[in-house]
Amino acid sequence: MSTPLSTKNKVLETGALLAQNFAPVNAVCAHLNAFHVYSSDPHRCVEANHYCSHISEDVRQCLIYDTPQPNARLIGVEYMISPKLYATLDASERKLWHSHVFEVKSGMLIMPGPAGVPTAGWEVAETKEMEEVIGLYGKTYHFWQVDRGDKLPLGEPELMGSFTSEEQVPKGLLKERDERYGISSEQKKEKRGYIEEPEIQSDADQ
Question: Are 26 and 19 in contact (CB under 8 A)?
Answer without folding.
Answer: no
